Amino acid sequence: MNQFYQQCLNIPLTSLAHHLARQFASKQNSLEKAKQVYLNTLAILAVKDFLEELSYATDLERGDSWNSAINCFHDVADLFILNLSKLECRPVVGKQKTFFLPREVAEQSRIAYIFVQFEEQLNEVQLLGFVRALDPISAPEKIAFEDLEAIDSLIDYLYRLEIAREILAKNHKIKAIAPEQDSNQFLSEIIAQFDRIIRTVAFNKQIEKGAEILNLWVREDYCRSQRELELNKIARILRDNLLDIWQIEKSPQGDFSKIPEWSILKWLGNEIDELGKTVGWSIVELDPSIARIKAIDSQLLNRSLIRELEIAGQNYELRIVPQSINSEASNWRFQLRNLTPGSLIPGGFKLKLLTKDGEDFEGNEDLAITATEELYLDITVETGESLIWVTEPYPQNYRPEIFRF
Q: Which of 61, 264, 338, 351 could cross-link with 343 by S-S, CB 3.0 to 4.6 Å?
């Protein structure tokens, strides 16, 4: 086994597991689908054995994967944990560094996704790791190996959900939105989503994102007259209670622990890497006739980075322009413009820069007092320093990113 796949937990596959897998596979209409169902079933049973060793009871019958009418048409491998909710057990074949998630799975209410590695000999599997609940509104199609948490952390994560569910089930406001049947499952899924929001969304956007999730989960007849206001209140109650339960310090800047970091000079001197292109960054060549201050590499000053953003329903361009570069420090302009012809940036919009730790600093924002053609920030940074950009309102699907200078 190579170093990439070390530290994974091995689980033996029993003859009973193979027997059940063959039963489901035999009901499929093609060899390809039969193989898919066979591996899905083995992955589920391996995770079931692992969880039951940890005293977590499971119920195979409550999984979609155990319903022949469903697994004939969908690629599902879910496992229900009693008093919690469903895990997804995704089989992995070959030494992969990215793992595909079927759309019908990524958009479902799973509290976690476990990735199960198969070898040529189907006598055992390896539990590679897991990811927590995904955003059902914009779920990714692929998961990178580097994003997996160690399988040992799954125990702490499930316990975290259990403790929070037991406490929040006593809150009358939260209890009112839960269905009478399967309230444990409902609350577990909501808490898993708020765990994701608390970890990945800036603090001042967590209530808004939480209300979006609640709107998907809460029954349609709940508080129709003031639904938006009520769901925002419940989102705040959930978020604030979970911060207390999990002993997380309230921070106006959110969690900046897993932000992608780009080298801006490397991009300008060479090209943007594939991940950066996926995010939406590109390079534009500047007019060479414009007088530029000398740099270590004058080519760097003839280029700038741009990215299109959708903010409040309109298209904007964020541009990062080098002004001067030397071995000790560099000067840059961050510039925001409205791309709609004849349109301005509305009053109240902000362009901000934060430190790598998500903190403000002097002169770090430009505010549109009234409608204006552009917002911009001119900054001087030392070589090796890092910054995060942000706009208010936030762009659609905003994720923080760090630029290293």
A: 338
